[in-house]
């Protein structure tokens, strides 16, 4: 697997970057190596990739000018070049024309990590010198700034003292900074004429980074001997200069501070942070995960011991948000561009490009002819409140209900729509809400059959109370068969569902209950416990509601427009399920239902920051039209449609579509589609192996399993009989966090006795399989 | 005033940037000028700042090698250098050693804008060539990338074809991009050896920007004549090459597309966007402001005519969010760094540096010994819901109320806390909420005296219904006198307030009402209409509530800890008032009250993106402790404590503090403090002139005025008697938007008959005075 961030307690590791080529990276590296040696510290120098004659290579230079050349023996000093290509051109091209091995990017990082790991116990310093400028390509053409980012080694930037060097240095610094590197010092040669150091010292002072100079090198000499002699003299003179001593001391301090800060974070957090959804009496500093940084599918988390960081697979997708990977440079650049172009700008009665473009793009993306309008808010909860305000008003206006008519929502048992009061009121009483002082569930929630794989067999399970209506659990050949709604609609169960739903609604009407919306999480109920609802039941529910206005209003009403809602406005909460989370742009498409209102958040920004879009039909929109200003939809947050969020969302939607279009998920899909009809061009699939799911569902500790899109949910048997307090899932979670290797573990979240996992849309097969592997071991 | 973005319909304006010095900016500029001329287009070349011998200057070069040198006469071609300094070093140093005039940054932009403006009607092309690399300093040392950003002219980047040039080019591109520049084409010389163009073409293709090459220049010639001859031949050959024709056509297309996009935005938005708080029947495309970009205090908005953009003062601070200016590069860099380092990472039971650092910093910032915990959410509404959940639970536990006891909040009439249902329920019925289907006001709201300047006199106005208790309106010598609470507490009105409040609460208790929190917007009620509440009344209210537990519970209870709440938990909604909005870190400090819970958003991120922090006391926190997981505070959004938001907030708090500490607001303060006691080191002040406020309050159309911190609120007389539907404020708003100059206007928002203005914490005196000036004219 890919290497993660490296941080060893006693090995102070820094990476030397150049603001340009030919700025003296190797000279400063040599000075730093020598200065450290002079303090009797051990030193490891690594040049991962070098081009040009090996004689002139930086690692040879370092060795040649080491203060004490005999110290190699006792490991006090070592200088390594990992990959050397002969042509003195950029590494990608030099590697390509050579006959030598070209390491993959990940492999190169692993090599570096291994060298450091072997060196870690000896302690001292390690300096890793890059080649050329910050964006000079590595052996596979990747910009070094991106290539080395997973290691996140603190940087020393060698600034450019030549004409134009101020600009080169600041631009290079920004390119490192925006990727999440910490630049800990800046060094450059003096130059009496250009005096770039004056401006640069002032600039870096503002950024809290020391910037120091050493005297200019001698002019190139005609004789090599003379040149070496002068070089040696330079090193003798400057390797112990107070300037370099100060810089080394600063770097040591920053290294120590970083560790101290990381190690103190859990206890400081324990005393200052009020955590969401966390009973503080059950929390202790040891249980708080300190996260140093993150990249792709992994957090870099603090662990005990000498190697302080390990890669933790982000098993909950950071509360279901992650799609395009942590620290994604494209999303970062989109965010920065919008921050630079707009900051945040007023949205009411104004328009800016990202908000408009995202609205247009999202409406196209959802392929739902009903949806024509986008309303922005900040997160799923607020987006649901907006949706409910929309739906209730539309129903009230259509049916002519007065302001005192109490309206509820129709939904499913176990649904959950967010933590604001209005969103909470959309769900039936549960541990999530019933103790909240102002909570008052407003609606009716149906029970329903569920889908999962049990003992290797795909099943639609019917809860005992519903068996009188629908019969016993039904086995299916495959998940694809369960999702084949067209075929199943022709069968008997669909009619059973419709009859049951109709009878229930009649009873509710006769009790005088009024409803203003059908609110569903399509296909999967997330927070309620990762419940995979039989899609046929949801389809039947929508169908009955839409075809039966008489069940909701005395004055049944069929509008003429085909895109207008009938019965009740149908609201889909796609905050969790939408935007490829379940393998498709929308979960609605799995149900083949076009909702009247659709709510999108979480993956909307690819996993970077909060934004929500509630899309609605023109028919719903028009319900708020009147001559009275106060009939408008009275909702709007200060940062509504903030440009940064909208820009990141545009980039995310584009990128997810591109992944889809270019077949990025084909390898995953193949494990699911072999048994499906070949003409099904939108198959049901998951990044989790079909065979893994089926096999796992047969384990003794496992009750049921399902996987769809990037989600895997495993229900564990409650062997203790403790119900909600069962520790079955907690035990598995703990075993995964303990991990089976020092450099790797799995961070996950549980919901009661369900442990679930969420890959991103850019997760590799390797990542996913590694999790499956460890799950196989843990679930024995 | 500062120049804004320039965009002329017929003058296709581009800025030529170099990825490095010596990459051929002037050669490519000449090629572009000549190619445009060859198409019989008019051309304007501008070199704003040049260093070195005038003979060798770029503007001379351009003229020397113009295709048709005789075309100057009919304005077909013009080449200008605005500032020439003789020494061939960086412009800041060259300017410093010269005896010549050094233009301020703003003045330089204005000069450029004027040249373009004069040229606009002629149409054609304008090319503005920068000096050195993207971050090379301008004449005052500002990086050019920042210096020229207000003009936001589309960029042509001349890439570096030399060794290391790939890195230099990408770094330069990123530095432009993250400031919100649109880079529309990339040009460079061919180089058979380094072949940077291969990698760069692939890179820019991914970014949707064409990258093209021209052949390398000839080697420098010993004879100047020979050199000129070869140069001329080069231009003759390449000025009409298909490559340059294609690039020019692309640039023309991008220019036209930008205008087309801008001009179509209002109607597209009108058909696709569902606007917050907007009655759609009253909206038409003409009323929608198209925002191209923003910088500092100004939006760049679309206007009719040939000059398509003007600077619009962001009078509502983009719904009260703005503090450190639009497009602030520091906030952008903080956001990008966090996006690169983390993306977003899981927060429940985890910790990352920005979230922890912000919590610690905010607790210190608020100087409230009661507050010890920070809970994160996404915006003010959710932060208030969190606060209410906290307070109600604490009260219920303390007083042993059962789950069926209905609890309300105590507050002030006209208060408003956000648009989610729970936040809405905290306010009394009003136009904002009473039509919302699930709204149910839960509480009691006091009436109170208010503060404003009326006819030049600072007054505490008593509403008629309260005059029996408090007497008539009271005049004061100054706002400072009204805010001198220590002195006023000794007076009779304080006792009157206390008696009235106590009697009211007794009556409520006797009616069987139960309350779980006192919830206040300290000093100013925002959305309720910019109401400046008499701070003495708020102080009395807190004092009575805290000292009278017997008014709220049968089992009155005084906890022993001095930091524990008494009576009821006191919640301050500082979403609008806090973090220097009213001139202090907190509005609580103006009241000299330490709330038990304090909610912060809006300015928390300096105006960039949504984030909220609810700070609470340890005593409140402990109310949620139990052995039962479900007693925890059940609230948490997916992006809780997102790293980007927290990092931007840290930067914002630091920067606002720095502004405070370095006396950035001293000039503003001086207009308010001359009459104050000299020993008051935390004066009451505003960025709006005291004399302006007093003078304006005497205008015939004006009812009352107040200013505090960055806020100015003007209540207009409702001459029509139409009440809420009065158009008095709307008329002023329209006059301000019409503006008094083609390049400038004021965008503002109104609340009923109140028009208000909100400067940022980095607004200049010039900005503020310009608004005051136009207000003086409009309010005649």
From TrEMBL, chains A, B:
It comes from the Eukaryota. PROSITE patterns: AA_TRANSFER_CLASS_3. Its main location: mitochondrion. Coiled coil: none annotated. Keywords: Aminotransferase, Transferase. It is found in: Mitochondrion. PANTHER family: ADENOSYLMETHIONINE-8-AMINO-7-OXONONANOATE AMINOTRANSFERASE (PTHR42684). This is Uncharacterized protein. It comes from Phyllosticta capitalensis. The lineage of its organism: Eukaryota, Fungi, Dikarya, Ascomycota, Pezizomycotina.
């Amino acid at each position: 697997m890919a290497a993660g961030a490296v941080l060893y307690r006693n090995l102070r590791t820094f990476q030397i970057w150049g603001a340009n080529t030919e700025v003296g990276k190797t000279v400063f590296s040599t000075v730093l190596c020598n200065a450290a040696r002079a303090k009797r510290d051990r030193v490891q120098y690594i040049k991962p990739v070098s081009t040009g004659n090996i004689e002139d290579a930086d690692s040879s230079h370092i060795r040649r000018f080491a203060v004490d050349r005999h110290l190699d023996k006792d490991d006090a000093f070592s200088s390594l070049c990992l990959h050397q290509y002969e042509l003195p051109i950029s590494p990608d091209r030099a590697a390509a024309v050579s006959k030598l091995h070209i390491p993959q990017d990940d492999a190169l990082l692993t090599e570096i990590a291994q060298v450091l790991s072997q060196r870690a116990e000896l302690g001292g310093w390690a300096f890793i010198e890059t080649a050329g400028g910050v964006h000079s390509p590595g052996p596979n053409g990747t910009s070094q700034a991106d290539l080395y980012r997973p290691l996140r080694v603190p940087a020393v930037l060698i600034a450019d003292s030549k004409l134009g060097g101020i600009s080169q240095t600041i631009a290079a610094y920004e390119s490192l900074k925006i990727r999440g590197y910490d630049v800990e010092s800046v060094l450059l040669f003096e130059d009496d004429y250009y005096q770039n150091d004056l401006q640069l010292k002032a600039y870096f002072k503002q950024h809290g980074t020391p910037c120091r100079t050493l005297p200019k090198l001698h002019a190139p000499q005609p004789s090599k001997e003379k040149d070496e002699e002068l070089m040696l003299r330079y090193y003798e003179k400057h390797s112990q200069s107070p300037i370099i001593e100060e810089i080394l001391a600063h770097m040591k301090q920053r290294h120590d501070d970083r560790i101290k800060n990381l190690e103190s974070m859990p206890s400081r957090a324990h005393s200052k942070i009020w955590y969401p959804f966390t009973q503080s009496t059950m929390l202790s500093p040891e249980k708080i995960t300190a996260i140093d940084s993150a990249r792709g599918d992994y957090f870099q988390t603090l662990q005990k011991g000498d190697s302080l960081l390990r890669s933790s697979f982000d098993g909950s997708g950071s509360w279901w948000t992650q799609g395009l990977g942590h620290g994604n440079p494209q999303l970062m650049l989109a965010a920065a561009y919008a921050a630079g172009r707009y900051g945040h700008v007023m949205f009411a009665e104004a328009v800016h490009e990202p908000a408009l473009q995202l609205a247009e793009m999202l409406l196209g993306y959802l392929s739902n002819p009903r949806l024509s309008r986008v309303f922005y808010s900040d997160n799923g909860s607020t987006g649901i409140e907006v949706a409910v305000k929309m739906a209730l008003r539309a129903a009230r206006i259509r049916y002519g209900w007065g302001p005192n008519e109490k309206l509820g929502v129709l939904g499913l048992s176990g649904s959950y729509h967010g933590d604001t009061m209005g969103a909470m009121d959309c769900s039936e009483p549960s541990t999530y809400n019933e103790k909240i002082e102002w909570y008052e569930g407003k609606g009716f929630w149906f029970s329903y059959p569920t889908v999962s794989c049990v003992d290797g067999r795909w099943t639609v399970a019917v809860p005992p109370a519903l068996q009188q209506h629908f019969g016993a659990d039904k086995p299916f050949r495959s998940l694809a068969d369960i999702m084949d709604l067209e075929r199943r609609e022709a069968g008997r169960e669909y009619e059973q569902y419709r009859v049951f739903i109709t009878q229930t609604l009649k009873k509710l009407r006769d009790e005088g209950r009024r409803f203003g919306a059908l609110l569903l999480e399509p296909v999967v109920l997330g927070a309620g416990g990762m419940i995979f609802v039989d899609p046929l039941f949801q389809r039947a529910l929508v169908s009955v509601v839409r075809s039966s206005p008489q069940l909701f209003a005395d004055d049944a009403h069929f509008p003429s427009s085909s895109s207008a809602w009938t019965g009740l406005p149908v609201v889909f909460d796609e905050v969790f399920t939408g935007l490829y989370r379940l393998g498709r742009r929308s979960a609605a498409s799995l149900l083949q239902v076009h909702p009247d209102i659709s709510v999108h958040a979480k993956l909307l920004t690819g996993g970077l920051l909060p934004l929500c879009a509630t899309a609605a039909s023109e028919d719903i929109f028009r319900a708020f039209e009147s001559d009275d200003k106060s009939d408008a939809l009275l909702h709007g947050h200060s940062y509504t449609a903030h440009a940064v969020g909208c820009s990141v969302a545009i980039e995310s939607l584009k990128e997810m579509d591109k992944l889809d279009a270019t077949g990025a998920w084909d390898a995953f899909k193949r494990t699911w589609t072999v048994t499906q009809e070949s003409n099904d061009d939108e198959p049901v699939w998951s990044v989790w192996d079909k065979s893994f799911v089926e096999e796992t569902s047969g384990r003794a500790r496992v009750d049921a399993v399902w996987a769809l899109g990037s989600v895997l949910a495993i229900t564990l048997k409650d062997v203790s009989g403790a119900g909600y307090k069962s520790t079955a899932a907690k035990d598995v979670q703990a075993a995964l966090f303990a991990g089976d290797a020092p450099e790797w573990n799995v961070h996950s979240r549980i919901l009661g006795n369900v442990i679930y996992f969420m890959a991103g849309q850019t997760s590799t097969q390797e990542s996913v399989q590694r999790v499956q592997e460890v799950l196989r071991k843990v679930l024995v």
